[in-house]
């Protein structure tokens, strides 16, 4: 596999940069500069409007972009009358009441509520987005961004621009890794960084078995809910109304009662519960 810029540019600030870069190309003044990147930029900005159930303007006559303005990751002023706020995440979650604070900050800048678009953009995985929704943020996920990058305009841009190609490839690799559990045998599952796969395991169990797969957040930071059982490897946890045999690897941190998982083996719907 050839070297990819985003193997090394892994921080939120790095992602902020490429998102701002894509947004900047949407400005009509760049239509002649590079028609292909302009079209991709337009499609990206259109998709952010659509994510928030807003109708994109016919033209982007002016685009002003600011990073870390009032602590907000990205603020994009569109056509002088709309404020687009992007809270960008690469695996971390909202904290310190930041969503409410950023909403209040932008509201004080003279924009009416119908001219403020709040977007919570997550390119890793998160099991619960309820707090973002409560504060009026529309959730824009990795798959939404991939739809843009792998569209006809995105593929055209990938052919001519290595940054677009690398970013798209980076996100596709993450998505394929996360979705691998759908086709791979459980013995071949790997534990991705953070909680990349766990939300998908949850969705898979909900879809295939109809039972909410929620484990105490003291054991798995990705979840809320409760479980019973000990923390020994291969323990059988009693989850919701049914039981599943879950093979987990654990290692204990020196302080506190939290645990870190390093591998998932297999589960069985018909396991006998010991909890």
Give the tags.
disordered C terminus, 2 domains, single chain, alpha/beta, 8 helices, five-stranded mixed beta sheet, 21% strand, 275 residues, three-stranded antiparallel beta sheet
Overview of the molecule:
By secondary structure, the chain is of the alpha/beta class. The chain has 2 domains: 5-175, no CATH class; 184-268, no CATH class. The chain is 33% helix and 21% strand. The chain has helices at residues 12-24, 35-51, 98-107, 130-134, 142-149, 152-160, 162-179, 198-209, and strands at 63-69, 72-78, 82-89, 116-122, 138-141, 236-239, 242-252, 259-268. Helix 1 (12-24) crosses helix 2 (35-51), helix 2 (35-51) runs antiparallel to helix 5 and helix 5 crosses helix 7 (162-179). It is globular, with a radius of gyration of 21 Å. The chain starts with 11 loop residues before the first helix and ends in a 7-residue tail after the last strand.
């Amino acid at each position: 596999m050839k070297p990819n810029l985003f193997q090394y540019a892994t921080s939120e600030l790095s992602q902020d940069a490429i998102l701002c870069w894509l947004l900047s190309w949407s400005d009509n003044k760049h239509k002649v500069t590079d028609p292909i990147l302009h079209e991709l930029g337009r499609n990206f900005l259109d998709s952010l409007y659509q994510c928030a159930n807003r109708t994109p303007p016919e033209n982007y006559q002016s685009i002003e972009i600011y990073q870390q303005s009032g602590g907000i990751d990205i603020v994009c002023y569109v056509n002088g009358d709309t404020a687009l706020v992007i809270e960008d995440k690469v695996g971390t979650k909202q904290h310190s009441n930041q969503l409410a604070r950023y909403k209040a900050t932008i509201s004080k800048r003279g924009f009416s509520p119908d001219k403020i678009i709040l977007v919570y953009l997550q390119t890793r995985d998160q099991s619960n987005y309820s707090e973002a929704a409560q504060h009026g943020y529309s959730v824009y996920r990795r798959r939404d961004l991939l739809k843009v990058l792998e569209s006809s305009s995105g593929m055209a841009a990938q052919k001519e621009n290595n940054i677009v190609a690398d970013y798209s490839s980076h996100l596709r690799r993450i998505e394929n890794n996360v979705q691998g559990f759908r086709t791979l045998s459980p013995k071949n599952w790997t534990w991705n960084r953070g909680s990349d796969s766990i939300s998908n395991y949850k969705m898979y169990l909900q879809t295939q078995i109809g039972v909410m797969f929620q484990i105490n957040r003291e054991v798995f930071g990705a979840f809320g809910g409760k479980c019973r059982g000990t923390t020994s490897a291969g323990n059988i946890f009693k989850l919701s109304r049914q039981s599943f045999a879950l093979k987990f690897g654990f290692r204990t941190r020196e302080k506190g009662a939290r645990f870190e998982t390093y591998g998932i083996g297999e589960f069985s719907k018909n396991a006998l519960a010991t909890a």
